[in-house]
């Protein structure tokens, strides 16, 4: 859902989360996440790495941005567009010795 349309009080389905449509919801289900509350305390980079392993393909690194946006939202931060986290993701990957 577009971050501007997210209503925390009506958060029931994965697609109620900011930046999550049907395709991203399906990726979360692959990770065993079926309810938004299951994102609390999750590590976005670890989620991305697990998704790549489970699907046996390298996903676009922008998925990390999406995962950052939804884990932060579930931790209480305001809904933000996923691309607001791109620079943070790039720095995170540099610090962890990864690229992209």
Can you walk through the features of this model?
InterPro entries: Cdd1. This is Helix-hairpin-helix domain-containing protein. It comes from Undibacterium amnicola. With 100 residues, this protein is mostly helical. It has a single domain (3-95), classed as DNA polymerase, domain 1 (Orthogonal Bundle), CATH 1.10.150. Helix content is 44%, strand content 0%. The protein is built from 4 helices and no strands. The chain has helices spanning 22-30, 44-55, 62-74, 86-95. Helix 2 packs across helix 3 (62-74). The two termini are 25 Å apart.
Instruction: Quickly give the CATH architecture.
Output: Orthogonal Bundle
Helix count, DSSP H or I runs of 4 or more residues: 4
Number of domains: 1
Number of strands: 0
| CATH topology-level name | DNA polymerase, domain 1
- Helical amount: 40-55%
User: Element order, helices and strands?
Assistant: HHHH
Beta-strand content bin: under 5%
- Backbone structural class: mainly alpha
Distance between the termini: 25 Å
Low-pLDDT segments: none
The shape, in one word, is: globular
Mean pLDDT: 94
What is the CATH class name? Mainly Alpha
Key features?
4 helices; single chain; mainly alpha; DNA polymerase, domain 1; 100 residues
Summarize the structure.
By secondary structure, the protein is mostly helical.
């Amino acid at each position: 859902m577009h971050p501007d349309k997210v209503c925390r009080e009506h958060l029931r389905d994965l697609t109620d989360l900011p930046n999550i449509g049907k395709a991203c919801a399906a990726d979360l289900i692959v990770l065993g996440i079926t309810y938004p509350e299951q994102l609390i305390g999750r590590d976005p980079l670890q989620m991305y790495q697990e998704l790549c392993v489970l699907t046996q393909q390298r996903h676009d690194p922008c998925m990390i941005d999406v995962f950052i946006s939804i884990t932060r939202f579930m931790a209480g931060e305001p809904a933000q567009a996923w691309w607001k986290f791109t620079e943070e993701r790039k720095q995170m990957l540099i610090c962890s010795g990864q690229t992209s």
